[in-house]
Amino acid sequence: MTAASSSNPQPRLRRLASKRRLFCESSDEFTALSQIIHEVVLSVLGCLSSCKKRGNPDWDLSSVSTGAGEPEDVVRLRILSVILLFCLCPIARARTGATLLVGEPYGHDGKWAGTGHAAVYLSGVCANSPVLLRPCAPDETGIVLSRYRGIGGYDWIAIPLLPYLYSVERPEDIPLLADKKLVAFLRDRYRRDHLESMVPDLPGGGTPDGDWYELIGASYLRTIYTFEIETSPEQDAKLIATLNDRSNRQRWNLVTANCADFARQVISIYYPHSVHRSIIGDLGVTTPKQLARTFSKYTRRHPELQLSKFVIPQVPGSIPRSKRIKGVFEVMLTAKKYMLPIFVFHPYAAGTAVAVYVEHWHFNPGKNALILDSQRQLSAPLTSTDRRVFQDQMEDLLRASSSPDTDADELQWTSLNAAAEPALDTAGGLTLQLTEGGEVTSVGIARSNILNVPAGSEFAAGLLKARLREELKTAAGRKTARADVEGDLLLLQQLLALQPSRLASTTNSDRGVPQSAAAEP
After folding, report:
1. CA 148, CA 212: separation in Å to the nearest integer?
2. pTM metric for this prediction
3. Which of 508, 503, 517, 464 is nearest to 486 (CA)?
4. Residue 179, CB-side half-sphere exposure with 13 Å CA sphere
5. What's 404's DSSP letter?
6. Rounded to a whole number, what is the largest CA-CA distance in the chain?
7. Which of 234-248, 312-326, 421-435, 505-519 has the weakest average pLDDT?
8. Helix axes 482-497, 457-471, angle to 10 degrees
9. Residue 491 and residue 447: Cα distance in Å, rounded?
10. If we measure between CA atoms, which residue out of 180, 97, 75 comes closest to residue 142?
11. Please, which pLDDT band fits residue 24 given cuts at 50, 70 and 90?
């Protein structure tokens, strides 16, 4: 990362995670800012009109005219307001960006290969359909491009940024905690709304099998490392023409045409020779880690591109955590099932693997990177000291507010959560429907609605406790934003404060005191 990008990362993040505006993010904000500037100008004019020129009590603004019927001071102030407006909030998109997304491996890939996934986010490119690109309108956020296998017979597919990461279309709908049932619900809902022509229902109306799920909700499965550089609208137009004009039919091949090969081709359209495969380190196979390494090296030689990097963490939950990203030789050297036979039958090849590993192992895509938090701002990762302090604060909250039978409460919460069904509230917010004692309660599970139903505060507090315990694990610290843990502790405190009647009744019942007697003065 260059000094310029590391010293002031917040504006670059705002452009990536929002609408890539220099100041105003929409036409409404432009109008609001212009009204503010107009009101300021009118206030200054009113002040000047009520003041007298020093030494001349008869002077006011009307005494100095431009000859066109308007005082000269008024004209100057109007010109100044126009200059301020267009300096602070340019209407046109000034710059766009290309961001390499390097995802950690998970599941089968994490166990047997470990090379991960690569995609490219383009903030200035949008899509009429998942396979037809166009320039973005002023209020659009861009798309993520990647190569997939066996999805509608296409080579590449374009998905908007937020659905690609979280399977939702509004930031306020991102769940605080994820499990397989919830993620499947979100993905299928988005598929039915936007991708059914490409991935149709089964004959009976059910959800189809296949790898289409990789199109959306990536952050539930893996941590993603981002590497962003500035681009121009002209470069975006060239990419749009290139991809729209060529045949978009499946080309996927594990060795010669994988997802990293496609990402390499896309980035090379913007900056030729900026990324390349490693013949020795990866046996000629293009890998996501090699792309990140060569991309970083290229921007060090071209500091004017202002590389900005940060980490998009995996959403906390019961889904297994993704693994460290590796290159081909790293996989061979760190996996006994590969390395032992090579050492026995091909010792020279094994020695070469060790040498290459020593050369490449030190590249860490997340080293010194900030974390994208839930407010779409860059935050410092947790340190070991932070983790201990936050753990103590959490335990203090729970000791002061929980019922004595904490283990039983956790077992009950786990049982309720397993039986809960995902649903939407009247405002379209994400909820879980809990069935207990024949009654159904809908509890919000996103930051925007988790406090909306006081009757569900006990379950919601359990959800926050589960999220915090995931965030405060030792292995998760370097991928967790400090600001998120602070916000989660505050939210937990608010939820616990909604439960005084439950706590009082629990304490009294433990003492054998009826509720009616406890209510007497």
Report:
1. 8
2. 0.77
3. 464
4. 14
5. S
6. 103
7. 505-519
8. 160
9. 9
10. 97
11. very low
